[in-house]
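Lab notebook, bench 4. The sequencing result for the construct came back, and we need a structural model before the next group meeting so we can plan mutations. Quick request posted to the team channel:

Model the 3D structure of this chain.
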Amino acid sequence: MRAIWKGHIRFSLVTIPVRIYNAVDTDQKISFNQLHKEDHGPIGYDKRCKKCNKVVSSEEIVKGYPYEPERYVIVEKEDLEKIKLKSTKIIEIEGFIDTKEVHPTLYESPYFAGPDGPVAVKAYSLLAHALRETGKVGVGKVVLRDREDIVLIAPLENAVALYKLRTPKEIRNVKEVPQLDGKTVDKDQLKLARSLIDSMSTKLEKIDLTDRYHDALREMIEAKIEGKQIVTVEEEEKPTVDIMTALKQSIEQAKTHKKPMEKAKGEKKKAVATNGSPRSRLGEAGKSKARKTKVA
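Done. Here's the predicted structure in token form:
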């Protein structure tokens, strides 16, 4: 794993040499090339000036900030290097907070932090354990890829993870969403909805988080490579049911699925856990909603 940043995490007088790594494996994504339809030749990225219509090289391109229509301030590489921020080499923890104070909409990208060399291991491990024991997370700033970002420093197993955060002003006001008129909710419907949520409560590890579209896409690509015909079967849409009837039927369905799990013992319980576990049921439920792709 290659580090993308090298520096220090510092809080008060404690300094820990660290390296930062990307937590997201981008190689898992399927990407496509743009091709010419007639001869399948790759389509190149044409860097063409919209003013003189000339194709330019990378050396002829500069960065410009538009301050008026058609008027720019040119920013050279040397100008950027003159910006000396402490956060280019040091992540200064400004304070420690409870995780619940950070709204989920602020989370952007995850990173892993690791000790930079054997000397840093002891202090690094101490930070990871202290964060886990206190239930706190640190908040600081770091310069990654030519911009300063707010980061949240949190424990992850026996390691430390960094989460790049958006600033609150980047998030739009949820009140701008149309049709949020704040109508009162029917008490009977609310009671049934809460009962349904309780009956479907589980743990994240038991939920099937497989990217079925990614798997189906890869299966389709492999089938086309082998010259097989792709046959797609559309699921029929179920008729719309009124909310009360849907809630009642959903609760009964949830109870039916849970009864065998509660009563089964010994070998029978083992069999049910294999074939009727929440994980397997959720997987089957998801499959019934998804589009089915078959290879002929």
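Residues 229 and 296 are 5 Å apart (CA to CA).
Will bring this to the meeting.
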